[in-house]
């Protein structure tokens, strides 16, 4: 198998799994309990918080553990709206992951006003447009750090400064950047940051929300007073421990991995552009994550391509994993003014820590074969068609 879908999820790092095992077997005490065996469990959880804080460059008290990126995004936006006395206006981008995009759409149904700031053909946001969108009634600006479909990076630290200047809270969905770019939150003015362990070789169903010291926060989950009263529910200890180890490794390897994975992705893009006519790399002129390729191919349907690639053992996705099986064009590609036809022929390939040089030529060759097969199937009546 050639796994090129690391923006959808990643293989768990064996070292993270190993550290989780005791907490799925013998060390099962509830971390809130008073007896001795719970102390070890609490310590492991706090160790994970320290490791994550070191990777993010923030304080341990600024981190709460959640069930993942979706919960963290919802929690930050909901909390900001609860506390904002001036009004209920949200600024976000037109290319957010559905975990933010749909949350904002739902808020609009409940009476909030939402401004979705657009992007240009390369997927870039205009800082001036974001600034102009902020009004006295704005409760929160939520802009992702990197786009999950194209890898395009947004200038979130600059946006956070604009927000600080206007006394508006700023949240960023950083799910796609952990382990891909170095972070130092203590040097930024970001109020909230979301992340998810399964995107950086940790387990699924666990994530975290960074809440800057001094930023008011209230969870919309009603229940116990876990996570210093900021997130109700018994902690998912084993997964939190796995997240901590994965974050530590991601932090330690980030520069090395950027240098290793970037050339793999670049060779792949050169390879497919040379081997397949009618290839268009989305966001190629923008600053992008080193691991992501969004490529549109003339004359194919991505759903059919996915099926054939799967037969050859190549895993990738059409736009984003959540879209697989959905027939409408990706809202990200629509916002970038990619035509419907090209959007329907778009595939996302995302490299990760467990990809090697050897994956590139194989993936290029198989993709070229699949695209050529699909194009021949769509050839006009009378043209020779080979199906095997
Ligand atoms: N935000 C982005 C940018 C993502 O790519 C994803 C996952 O695809 C999420 C949020 C959702 O994260 P989770 O799967 O942990 O809920």
Structural class: alpha/beta
Q: Which ligands occur here?
A: pyridoxal-5'-phosphate
Total beta strand runs: 12
H/E series, N to C?
Answer: EHHEHEHEHEHEEEHHEEHEHHEH
Q: Could you describe the largest sheet, including whether it forms a barrel?
A: 7 strands, mixed
Low-confidence stretches: 381-388
**Helicity range of the residues?**
40-55%
| Content of β-strand | 5-15%
Order of strands across the biggest sheet?
2-8-7-6-5-3-4
Determine the oligomeric state from the structure. single chain
Q: Specify the number of helices.
A: 12
Q: Could you report the average pLDDT, rounded to the nearest whole number?
A: 94
Rg, please? 22 Å
Distance between the termini: 21 Å
Shape: globular
């Amino acid at each position: 198998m050639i796994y090129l879908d690391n923006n959808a999820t990643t293989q768990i790092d064996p070292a993270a799994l190993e550290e989780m095992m005791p907490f799925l077997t013998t060390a099962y005490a509830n971390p809130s309990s008073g007896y001795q065996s719970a102390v070890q469990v609490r310590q492991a959880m706090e160790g994970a918080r320290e490791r994550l804080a070191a990777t993010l460059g923030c304080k341990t008290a600024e981190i709460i553990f959640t069930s993942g990126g979706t919960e963290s995004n919802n929690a930050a936006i909901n909390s900001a709206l609860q506390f904002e006395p001036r009004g209920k206006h949200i600024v976000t981008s037109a290319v957010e992951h559905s975990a933010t995009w749909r949350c904002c759409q739902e808020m609009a149904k409940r009476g909030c006003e939402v401004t979705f700031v657009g992007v240009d053909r390369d997927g870039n946001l205009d800082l001036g447009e974001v600034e102009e969108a902020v009004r006295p009634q704005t409760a929160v600006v939520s802009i992702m750090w990197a786009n999950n479909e194209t890898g395009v990076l947004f200038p979130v630290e600059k946006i956070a400064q604009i927000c600080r200047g206007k006394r508006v809270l700023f949240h960023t969905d950083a799910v796609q950047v952990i382990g891909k770019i170095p972070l130092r939150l203590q040097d930024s003015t970001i109020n909230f940051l979301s992340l998810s362990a399964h995107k950086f070789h940790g387990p699924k169903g666990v994530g975290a929300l960074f809440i800057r010291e001094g930023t008011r926060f209230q969870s919309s989950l009603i229940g116990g007073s876990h996570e210093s009263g900021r997130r109700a529910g018994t902690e998912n200890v084993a997964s939190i421990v796995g997240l901590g180890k994965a974050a530590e490794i991601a932090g330690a390897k980030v520069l090395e991995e950027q240098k290793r994975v970037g050339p793999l992705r670049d060779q792949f893009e050169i390879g497919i552009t040379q081997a397949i006519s009618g290839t268009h790399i989305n966001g190629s002129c923008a600053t992008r994550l080193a691991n992501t390729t969004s490529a549109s191919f003339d004359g194919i349907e991505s759903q059919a391509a996915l099926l054939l690639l799967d037969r050859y053992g190549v895993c990738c996705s059409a736009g984003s994993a959540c879209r697989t099986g959905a027939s409408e064009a990706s809202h990200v590609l629509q916002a970038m003014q990619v035509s419907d036809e090209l959007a329907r022929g778009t595939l996302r390939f995302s490299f990760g820590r467990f990809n090697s040089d050897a994956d590139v030529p194989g993936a290029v060759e198989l993709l070229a074969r699949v695209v050529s097969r699909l194009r021949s199937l769509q050839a006009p009546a009378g043209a020779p068609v080979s199906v095997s």
